[in-house]
Amino acid sequence: MKRIFVFSYHGKESFQTGFNRLLSISESLSKSYEVHFVYGDRNKVKEPIKIKGNLVEIPLNYSSNFFHHFYKDLLDSGRRGLAKLLLITYYFFTGKEIFDLGREFKKYKKNTNITLTKDDIVIASFPSITVHNLGYSLKQEFGCKLILDYRDPGVFGYQLIEESKILSFLRRFFLKRRELRNLKSADLIITISDSIRRLFPEKYTDSVQVIRNGYDANKINFSLIKHYTDTFKLVYLGSVYNDQLVDTTFFKAVRKFINKYAIQPQNFQIRFVGTGESLKLKETIKHFNLEPYVHIGKKMPIEQVYAELYSAAMFLHLKYGERQEIITTKQYEYLAFQKPILLPINDHGDLEESIRKYDAGFICEKESEIIEVLNNNLISHFSGTPVIIKRTDNELYELSRQSQEEKLIALIRKL
Fold first, then answer.
1. Which domain of life does the UniProt lineage start with (predicted)?
2. pLDDT tens, residue by residue, 139-158
């Protein structure tokens, strides 16, 4: 049976969308191939290997020293900007990343005597570039096929989230040569959107294939979706980055909405689900005296996250600064749960395009529009006529991660 090796920088303990997506891809591929899903883990691994049919999960502990602990503490406490600065500084002096999956897989190969062949396929997913470097080195060593996966653009395209201009310059300066080397070596390049595909160098644009994010249809029970509850819940799913909180128009509008209509916390709640630590988010909520109206939830398994979405009345986006090319997995999950989406400040990009394409909600430009949308939907909710956006079975399948995995499998077969 042909083997496929899938490499993920993030591990299960991070509850990252990227990890869940690669796990789902690995599970789908394992129906036809022997799949080795290799991922880094910042915590101590209890089970060094897990086997389920043709799927072999291989979590690898990242090395543990002062820099690893300090970097992990910064990430866990929400100080992601400082974490990135440490990452760049460490790379400047050592030429390596703090968490290096290639280094850990090299140890694993030595300890287990595992070898790859020219018939094997390697899927290396960005972030980080160390995973792409690992894919490149395996192709050079064994002659296997190499698929480079981009959830975010590498050195080409927009300045990454919570990355200063100087950090962005340094990252591009140090990594551009390696990224071009990796691209040239790849047998297939995939990314999650047409917008990111257009950011690649022109010589690669036409050959890059789009495999979109999607919601996990295996994890949703559509019969549990509620269209009315005693509390109007405006739900945001996933991480909130500092760049999303530079523009505070939404929070100003919510405060004015509450004051204007004397809204009580038992009737209106904003829930940040699976968000984890964000110091700036907490500061913003406190600044606008929204503590009674806001709940911030820790990161959790996707099944628990979806359970929180069943009772939402409306979903919330926050644009990513001036970036227009970001469309996250949460957009597909919002669409699948068939509740209206609020984009309080237009990103004039992929989010706007998706909401308009699927007639999925409300795009605002200023405070007064946000207040009007919230009030109208609150009235509809408590009058027993909540906004419901029905999706056909074909639409729901098209939005699913599983439909995109079928496209990927077809591309792999051509290899």
1. Bacteria
2. 999 999 999 999 988 888 88
Count the helix, strand and coil residues of the chain and give each as a percent rounded to the nearest 5.
Answer: 45, 15, 40
The whole-angstrom separation of Cα 237 and Cα 386 is 20
What are 151's two structure tokens?
């959830």
Q: What is the CATH number of domain 217-394?
A: 3.40.50.2000
Closest of 274, 201, 204, 250 to residue 363, by C-alpha: 250
Q: What is the DSSP letter of 309?
A: H
> Where are the chain's structural domains?
3-62+99-214+400-414, 217-394
How many CB atoms within 10 Å of residue 260?
10
Residue with tokens 């079928």: 406
* Backbone phi, psi, residue 272, to 5°: -95, 110
**Cα dihedral: 377, 347, 244, 215 (round 10):** 70
Q: Computed over its alpha carbons, how large is the radius of gyration of the chain?
A: 22
Cα→Cα distances 118→64, 121, 124, 130, Å: 33, 8, 16, 22
* Superfamily classification of domain 3-62+99-214+400-414: Glycogen Phosphorylase B; (3.40.50.2000)
The pTM (predicted TM-score) of the whole model is 0.90
The C-alpha atoms of residue 40 and residue 100 are separated, in whole angstroms, by: 8
**Which residues are CB-contacts of 3 (< 8 A; sequence separation ≥ 6)?**
33, 34, 35, 36, 116, 117, 119, 120, 121
Is residue 187 classed exposed, middle or buried when 0-12, 13-18 and 19+ CB atoms within 10 A define those classes? middle
d(CA 63, CA 241): 27
Within this chain, domains 3-62+99-214+400-414 and 217-394 share the same CATH topology: yes
Cα dist. 241→79, 211, 212, 238 in Å?
10, 25, 22, 10
Residue given tokens 């949308």 in the structure block:
373
Give the integer Cα–Cα distance in Å for 317 and 331: 8
Q: Which residues pair with 341 in a beta bridge?
A: 315, 361
Q: Dump pLDDT digits (tens) for 368-398.
A: 999 999 999 999 999 999 999 999 999 999 9
